[in-house]
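Two folds, back to back.
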Amino acid sequence: MKKFVIILVVIVLVCTGGYVLYKRKASGVQAVRDNLTRTDNLYTVAKGSVIKTISSNGFINPLREKNLNFKTTGRVKTLNVKKGDYVEQGDLLATLDNLSEELSMTKAQHSYEQAVISSSSSVKKERSLELDIAKLNYENTFLYAPFSGLVTSVDMEVDDQTNSSTAVIQLLDLSGYILELNIDEVDMAQIQLDQIVMVTLEAFPELVLRGKVTEIGYIASSQSGVVSIPIKVEITGGDPRVKPGLSASAEIVIAQATDQVVVPITAVTEQANGTFVMKKVGDKIERSSVKTGISDDLMIVIEEGLVEGDQIVVNNYQAIDLIRNGMQNRMQFGPAAITGVRGGGRP
């Protein structure tokens, strides 16, 4: 009899404790439900823009960089620029001693003029070719800027001997820049020519440069097991703060949506049976099915299911987790569990 009383007391205590705990959990779940309608949990749906990007890092290079050299052998006669000068396309940068070339050109000119007057057509053709060669040899004694840019190096002095393989002047085109990037192979299908690229520099994070994809490599490379494809981004415009060699971060725009219904991504829950948000309907919070579009990992486009002015729960994933836990707790301390205790407590 005493043993039976003890067992009965234990069952009563377990049931009472389970009921109290169940009530506490249930009240906690209800508190979560009530809390959902607080204004700091609700988000009013509005239209906006979402930009989806692929990120990569690289280094700034000049749009063009060229070592300039004469096309013939000779002695440097004049140097018209120095390091740090900015030159325009077509500017004369340097000349060689060209008296011999000038004399040859003058003689060839005279011979051609004589042939035009008194020689056969074949002779005129021959003299014309001789004149063309003499002019070319003379022109090769002049060094002109092939594009506008900054002189970064002058490697010769007046009276130095030079030839066609010796660099005289280094010229950089700073009207724009090239950013070389390596894109992971899993992202390559989304990269296309002329896509917009937003570039920021590590040295000047407040400076945002605009560029576009101008070249996609044909051969992949592998480093430490990571396969990537090289691409080139041309950055338009020249900012004096930008220097070749600076490190840069790039955001390649692969998709964008404007004037669309967008919500914080934390408002959306994906489940096996669909995608949902928790929407305020009257005084209640109800689960509402939606169709989503692109996302930038912060905001997401809602293509169907919401309109401007709707109110939704931004942190609904937390609320759903608490409600789910509450449901599991009710199952844990429900009638079946108590019955099991009673069954196990029979003498």
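---
second:
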Amino acid sequence: MKLPKFNKLYVFIFSAFFFGVFGVFLGATTFAEQFVGTPESGKTSRLTEIYELLKDEGVGSDSSGEWGDWGAVMNRIRGVAGETVSGPTNCPTGMIPVPPGNGGTGFCVDKYEAKQSGSAAVSVAAGTPWVSITQYDARTACEASGKHLITEREWLQIAKNVEQVGWNWSGGTAGSGQMSDGHSDSTPGNSLAASTDDDPCSGTGQTCNITTWNSQRRTYQLSNGEYVWDFGGNVWDRVDGFTYESYPYANNWSVWVACNTPDGICGNTLATNDQRYGGNTTALRALRRGGNWSSGTNAGAFAMSLTYVPSYADSGMGFRCAW
């Protein structure tokens, strides 16, 4: 479940939660809250007021989560507080939580590029990605699974998150060296299945692991410790976005190079990741991101191509869903 935009409320929740837990030491009875969910004093506590607000808005749950049963009030408040840091705690099977950031709230995303199960898209490690599908049909396949095709805003929220995690960089700290490209060197010259044990170089013929970086490493680590597969390389991922007259892109295709204009062509380093990279067009084109097995150094979390119309499909282009 996605959270509404309660940025100021989140700050209030954390503050109230802190003072509620330590209120007994401060002697502030109106902040006190029993673990069974009712105020110790005869007054309505701040935590109860927050609980009622969250409940009225349909945010959080009274049921116990991974932290154990603290009572209805504390279950809901602690659950929402956790989601504001690490992302949703109730992602469907095969999906991982994405922390809030880059102007967006937390959401869930497929850990793996979509695989076909009848008419529905599923996120599993086994099998090669579902390809040769139009953008329109990718939308439908995500909807058949109760999800939606990942949006441009959601994609960039993930890209900006992994950009700040040192594990993804050759130098071991954010901005040091370059981020990995994913399976993109045409060895082998096809898409790959994922590994169930998060072996980041699985199938590439390269050697890397949790501690050893490689440009062909197929996973990015999020700030909450989750891993997302093939966010760069393997197959292009369709994104639910288009160019159109009031939102055109007009920049020539190129390799990753430094950019001097806001709409320039750029690449997989901290200095250039915020820039754009793609095709030279203001006509209707569907967005696709990440690169595929033959994109070389053009692949990566920030790679974007504007070559094809939404109805085009080929074997190097797949998709992933969000929720």
